[in-house]
Design brief:
- The protein is an alpha/beta fold.
- It has a single domain, classed as 3-Layer(aba) Sandwich (Rossmann fold).
- Helix content is 29%, strand content 19%.
- It contains three helices and four strands; from the N terminus they run E-H-E-H-E-H-E.
- The chain has a four-stranded parallel beta sheet, sandwiched between helices.
- Strand 1, helix 1 and strand 2 form a beta-alpha-beta unit.
- Helix 2 packs parallel to helix 3.
- The radius of gyration is 13 Å and the shape is globular.
Length: 97
């Protein structure tokens, strides 16, 4: 399985440990994984840009770490199975209630 991971843009130091570990461990389990940052900007502009770039065209599934509407919309438009991970596991993370 080819997995596309969308890292949490608010991770400390710009590093998303969850996505990094999945990319690192996937080959040992017979999968491939890559990461792609989704840029900030107006929702419509970003989703159109992602679609024009063929977002998720070379993967079997998308895992989005934290709520990122543009990534969700682009994954749906690409007709890819999508997982949304909503765990805020570091100090200073925003809490959504």
């Amino acid at each position: 399985m080819r997995i596309l991971l969308i890292p949490d843009p608010t991770s400390p130091n710009g590093e998303d440990a969850f996505c990094r570990e999945i990319v690192k461990r996937a080959p040992a389990r017979g999968h491939s994984a890559s990461m792609q940052m989704v840029p900030n900007g107006p929702l419509k502009t970003v989703t159109e840009m992602l679609a024009s770039q063929g977002f998720a065209s070379d993967c079997d599934a998308v895992i989005i770490n934290s709520l990122q509407p543009a990534a969700l919309i682009a994954a749906k438009a690409a007709r890819k199975p999508t997982v949304l991970r909503m765990i805020e596991s570091y100090a200073g993370a925003s809490v959504w209630l």
